[in-house]
Amino acid sequence: MGIPGLDEMLGGGLPVGFSLVVVGPSGSGKTILATQFLAEGVRQGEPGVIAAFEKSPSQLLNNKLHALVKAGQVGVIDTRALDLSIDETLHDLIEMISRMQAKRVVIDSLSGFELALAPQFSDDFRGSLYRMIAQLTAMGVTILMIAELEDRYTDLRFSPYGSAFLTDAIIVQRYIEIVGQFKRVLSVVKVRGSEHSKDIRLFDITDEGIMIGETLSEYAGILSGRPTVSP
């Protein structure tokens, strides 16, 4: 995944051909995680493709991602046009994947994807998404999808649209408050067929990217947003 410690949390990394959804509130580091996933693919000789549904490429590209795109190692599909069909999007993705021999695909984000679809396609968004994931993973592509999900501390959800069942793996990022400060935490909720970590771990965003920290074993009620020290 390109993030020290995250492969271990996933039970050995993300298997080839799996689909992963990274869920979290705005600013929690989802796109940075996706960038490190793409950068690690390039380092291992696996080109990538990112489909930008919410931001223009100039807004989306941080320095690391911009360098990968400029070098021709990551392709960008700007899909902010409205009234798209699933078939058009899938055609553009498959065309770029085939041309670049890409092995990793990022979709940023599912909510932007749904908004970009014409009404007749958004009515069956879950079904359309399932078919697209199935076709891409059948090509041996590993998919990372970003999903915006506001923190509702009384409501434990892992994906919008009830689409969690569509994916092979789920990583959740959340904000919590500890001693009057907002902190970010990360947990692996699901990896199909894997003995993944059940830990909730702190993480920071630095100039180097996401750095995973310690577990919060001494705290109780972490997912309430305001954990307390365990007795």
Automatic annotation (TrEMBL):
- Lineage: superkingdom: Bacteria
**Domain KaiC: residue ranges:** 1-226
Against InterPro entries, the record matches this protein to: Circadian_clock_KaiC-rel (IPR051347), KaiC-like_dom (IPR014774), KaiC_dom (IPR010624), P-loop_NTPase (IPR027417)
Full protein name? RAD55 family ATPase
Organism of this sequence: Undibacterium arcticum
